[in-house]
């Protein structure tokens, strides 16, 4: 089941956001802090994985906690 879907650009700006089945709703327009926290988490984990992974590694693809699982995908652009 998908709960939240984020699309960020390379600078950390959230280009698209959609949520489903979220129990705690924010007032409209108060998502900016969530975007910053999510991008910071993803950026930090990716940098950590790059630092410890072998050079031929795939990088971060997903991680799982007791509460959720995050899938991560990087698309290259022209």
Order of strands in the sheet with most strands: 1-2
What is the radius of gyration? 14 Å
Counting DSSP H or I runs of 4 or more residues, the number of helices is 1
Tell me the CATH topology: Beta-Lactamase
- Could you tell me the strand content as a percent range? 15-25%
Query: Structural class given helices, strands, pairing?
Result: alpha+beta
N-to-C SSE series? EEHEE
Distance between the termini: 31 Å
Average predicted confidence as pLDDT: 80
Gross morphology is: globular
- The overall strand count is 4
**Oligomerization state of this entry?**
single chain
**At CATH's second level, what is the architecture?**
2-Layer Sandwich
| Poorly predicted runs of 5 or more residues | none
State the CATH class.
Alpha Beta
What is the count of distinct domains? Answer: 1
Main β sheet profile:
2 strands, antiparallel
Helical coverage, percent range: 25-40%
How would you characterize this protein structure?
This protein has 78 residues and is of the alpha+beta class. It has a single domain (4-71), classed as Beta-Lactamase (2-Layer Sandwich), CATH 3.30.450. The protein contains one helix and four strands, in the order E-E-H-E-E. The strands form two sheets. It has a two-stranded antiparallel ribbon with strand order 1-2. Strands 3-4 form a two-stranded antiparallel ribbon. Strand 1 and strand 2 (14-19) form a beta hairpin.
Question: What's the quick description here?
Answer:
By secondary structure, this protein is of the alpha+beta class. It is built from 1 helix and 4 strands. The longest helix has 21 residues.
